[in-house]
Structure formats: structure tokens, C-alpha cells
Amino acid sequence: MDELARQRDQLAQKSPVHWLTNPFPEPVPIRVGLKRDDLLHPLVSGNKWRKLKYNLLAAREQEVSTLLTFGGAYSNHLYATAAAGKVFGFKTIGIVRGDELACKPLNPTLSFCQSCGMHLHFVSRTYYQRKDDSQCLIELKQQYGTCYVLPEGGTNELAIRGTAELVPELITQLGFAPDYVCCPVGTGGTVAGLAQSAPPGTTVLGFMALKLPEPIHPEKWLPVMDYHFGGYARTTPELLGFIRDFEQRTGVLLEQVYTGKMLYGLYDLARTGYFPEGATVVAVHTGGLQGRSGELG
After folding, report:
1. Enclosing domain of residue 10
2. Which of 2, 124, 135, 161 has its CA 20 to 30 A from that of 294?
């Protein structure tokens, strides 16, 4: 068994469930657990590790040594892919949205990617919209040679296979199935995996990090639309204040893009009577702390 497969099998032990006895500004009538996927790996943390692991194994099996993927300037996925490449011996190429960034100093996310050896290829926003077109991929492979292509955000069938392992792992840790499992939703790979493996008695709630023009109606999980705080990566003083208070009460760090919004939404639903009294609710901390706002201290 090589190092990649060995770590795949061992890292689940590093994501415990922490019961939160007093995490919110006022008591709520439910039992709240936090699945600590942020502890899975020091660099490739949270849902990004679960999404990447079977893709990395597939690239290794196909004897492809270069990973090519896509993201914005603050992409957790680019960060995780660059880190995974360094840790597991892959070359990495990041197609970055925004050609104007090529002439500017790199932000901390892109600086980290570059420090891990990722080649950053800045493209116009118009070109970036073509990222899923077959012709665009042909052009990129002509330029860079044989690559294992990961989609923006890392969500594909192998990613969902990885995230689907979370619920059985959680049930083994608890000794029972929780009433609810909650996670933040960006590209949807994590919540799709949760929904795929959740038993009939467990409801999966996906807290949307994006402001969508109309509600979505997925199968097997319920979208929670009201806690995006204005859209992707946007925030408010109220959200930042909630996160600071949560961190002070629990000692667990959050970020404001995904997990912070989910936990605010979970609290708001609980205090307004959404969950039955005494329900067991487990929220997944999906990591991404590299995107934590400096305003949080």
C-alpha cells in the first residue's frame, strides 16, 4: 500500500465528533455535535480531502503525474489541490479566474499555491466561463500535456464517493444515526455524498453559501436558502459577531464563507423551533480556515 492509500485509510480517525454543550448565544432544545473534518489533514483539510482522495488514487492508477484544476483567487479548492500535489508528489496547474490578477501581487491563497509548486495560469473571466467545454480542455491539454483534470470545486463522481463515506463513519463514531446532518453547500459535492449514504431516519440539510435566483429542489436533501448573508464570500457584522462568540465559547475556529454561515443558520432554526425538541443534530465542519477573514482576529 503506498503512502496515499495509507493516509486515506488512517485519516478518518482524525475527525472526531465534538459535542457542543453551550455554543450559542442562548440555549437551544437540541443536542448539537460538530464533525471535525477540519482536523483531517493540516493542509488538505475538511471536505477537500474527502473530495480529492479517490481522484488522487485514480490519477496514480492512470500513471498521470499532473493535476489541472480551476478556481478563483481565494479558492479553497486550488489551495487544497496545490497542497495535495506537494504532499503526494503531483505537479499541479491552477487555471485562475481573472487575467487582471497576473499583474498584481499574489494574495495569501495564491501565494501558498505557488509555494507548493502550482503553476498559476490566469485567464479572462470570459475564457473561464468555457472551463467545462470539451474544446477548452483540449486546448489546455495541448498546452500542458497529459493531465488529470479536476473540475472547479473538485466535485465529480469520485469526489461524491469520498464524501459519501462521512455518514457511515459518523454513525460508527456515535453508535447511532443522528436525526439531522448539516453541511454548507458550494458546488454541492459534500451534501450529495451525505444524501447518498444517509439512512432513512436521517435528514440532510444543506446550507447554501450562494445567493441563488430561485430555490433549488434536490433529491434526498433539503436546501436551506436563507443564510447566505448576501452571497458567496459576503458577510455582515452580525455574522462575524456570531462567529467570534461561537469561537470564544467552544475554542473551535470557523471561517465566514461556509461553516460560520451554516452554524448561524443551525442556531437560528433551532431557536425558532425548526428541530423537534431533543433532536440530535450533527454539523460538518468542512475546514477552509485558510479563507478565514482577518476581521475575525
Report:
1. 3-42+158-296
2. 124
For 46, counting Cβ atoms within 10 Å of its Cβ (0-12 exposed, 13-18 middle, 19+ buried), the class is: buried
Retrieve residue 173's grid coordinates.
463514531
Q: For the domain that residue 116 is a member of, what is the CATH number?
A: 3.40.50.1100
Q: Please write the tens of the pLDDT for every residue from 188-243.
A: 999 999 999 999 999 999 999 988 766 677 778 999 999 999 988 789 999 999 99
80 and 206 housed in the same domain: no
Regarding whether 28 and 174 lie in a shared domain, the answer is yes
Cβ atoms of residues 291 and 48 within 8 Å: no
SS3 108: helix
Q: Is residue 251 classed exposed, middle or buried when 0-12, 13-18 and 19+ CB atoms within 10 A define those classes?
A: exposed
DSSP reduced 3-state for 182: strand
pTM (two decimals) = 0.90
